[in-house]
Design a protein that fits this description.
The chain is α/β, with parallel strands linked by helices. The protein has 19 helices and eleven strands. The chain folds into two domains: 5-156 and 314-374, D-Maltodextrin-Binding Protein, domain 2 (3-Layer(aba) Sandwich), CATH 3.40.190; 158-312 and 390-433, Periplasmic binding protein-like II (D-Maltodextrin-Binding Protein, domain 2), CATH 3.40.190. The chain starts with a helix and ends with a helix.
């Protein structure tokens, strides 16, 4: 699947709103999961299970499930699989009907909402018993302040700086280094911007949470939420400074205007009018058809900001249904999927960074260029953090994204937009944390 900016944003859309949760939870409480014996019988578990393989074969190589079936031949596994949003919608319907899958897949941000609503199980006891945290990247990314861990990563998306090596060569510039700062990025964007070539220096994507409006405040030393995830900080002075910097790129002509972003992508398509020489993006960008044709690019760490070094990691993760009668068997699947051999198969497909460190090292070492500096993604995981995960992640970030559009599109002054965003986001947080 080609992961354009638009589709990446859509993929992280709403699963079910908070208003639908009460009815779903009630339905779950009234029923059990169809299945079989929880205890292993004869050399393995037996009974029927339902796996939600969100994303289809691109996300879930068949070899991994085939190996699991061979290990547990007495299990009858039914697959619910297909495209990301469509499959999550189907799972939502299954949850509402009282027959959710035993184990399924989704972003860590979704999981931290499902957990407090009683849809999924706390995996902390399983992790403590069976997995060594130092062997994995972001193993407990979905951990809440109470110590619950609602999901285990299947793979990871981490943001790095992509740059067009040919564009740098054309103006005689040295390539970015791991020591670059945000000011150096701005200076490079100025040199690389060339209206005659229809080239912008930096593709800023202000409407994309992962690479812009959540990330930039972190570079300025704060977050749009506080450390507890219960208080909005959109009215913080450093958030204002961060967004002023973000808006500086299109305002000074160094990035495409929001309305024209699609015409000047980092990796041009046949319909593009020009290109952008740099961008922040996730690992999955490497798999885009346009990127495979581009050829002349590499990656580096996101430049250090005025106050901090930070980047975004998204853990696409496995969860176990609260009502599953086969939770131990479901955990065996998650544990199986986390092993080195399975993670190598998974990561070799190119859709994400392996969460198993040994697998990540092996796949990174043997993957062909471009990019040459693929290891930058692994280095980035040393200082990466999640996207403001909490029990109402879907709700607060949807409200924030909608309101911030008014600033990006110059409909209202930035300071006014941030004040209103702060008010509305806090209202969403309070609906859960003050009830």
């Amino acid at each position: 699947m080609e992961l354009t900016e638009k589709r990446l944003t859509t993929r992280r859309g709403m699963f079910l709103g908070a208003t639908a949760v009460t009815g779903v939870a009630a339905a779950l409480a009234a029923c059990g999961q169809s299945g079989g014996e929880q205890k292993p019988a004869g050399g393995g578990f037996s009974g029927k299970m339902v796996f939600g393989l969100v994303g289809g074969e691109q996300q879930h190589p068949p070899e991994i499930l085939s190996g699991f079936r061979a290990k547990y031949p007495k299990l009858e596994i039914e697959e619910v699989t297909g495209a990301w949003n469509a499959t999550l919608e189907k799972i939502a319907s299954m949850v509402a009907a009282g027959n959710p899958p035993d184990v399924w897949y989704g972003e860590d941000g979704r999981a931290t909402g499902w957990g407090p609503q009683g849809w999924i199980r706390d995996l902390a006891p399983y992790i403590k018993r069976d997995l060594k945290e130092s062997d994995y990247y972001a193993l407990t990314a979905a951990k809440d302040p109470q110590g619950h861990v609602w999901a285990v990563p299947g793979d990871l998306q981490v943001v790095a700086l992509f740059y067009n090596t040919a564009a740098f060569d054309e103006v005689g510039m040295k390539y970015p280094t791991a020591d670059w700062t945000l000011d150096q990025l701005t200076t490079a964007a100025q040199r690389l911007t060339d209206p005659g070539k229809k080239q912008f220096g930096f593709f800023s994507q202000p409407n994309y949470i992962t690479t812009s409006w959540y990330l930039f405040p972190k570079l300025f030393g704060t977050g749009v939420l506080d450390d507890t995830g219960t208080k909005s900080q959109f009215n913080h002075p450093k958030v204002l400074q961060a967004y002023q910097k973000l808006m500086e790129f299109p305002d000074k002509g160094l990035a495409p205007p929001l309305a024209d972003q699609g015409k000047y992508p980092f990796a041009p398509t046949q319909t593009a009018e020009g290109r952008s020489a740099m961008q922040f993006h996730i690992y999955a960008r490497l798999g885009d058809a346009a990127m495979k044709q581009l050829g002349t690019y590499d990656v580096e760490l996101v430049p250090r900001g005025p106050a901090a070094r930070w980047t975004t990691v998204i853990a696409n993760s496995w969860v176990i249904g609260k009502q599953s009668t086969m939770p131990d068997a479901a955990w065996e699947w998650i544990k199986w999927h986390s092993q080195t051999d399975q993670q190598i198969i998974r990561a070799s497909g190119g859709t994400g960074v392996a969460m198993n460190k040994k697998a990540a090292e092996e796949v990174t070492a043997r993957a062909p260029a471009p990019p040459k500096n693929r290891r930058a993604f692994l280095k980035s995981l040393e200082f990466a953090g999640p996207l403001g995960l909490n029990a109402v992640w879907q709700e607060w970030r949807t409200v924030a994204g909608r309101e911030l559009q008014k600033a990006w599109q110059k409909q209202e002054p930035l300071s006014n937009v941030l004040a209103e965003t702060h008010r509305l986001v806090q209202a969403e947080l309070d609906k859960f944390y003050k009830k």
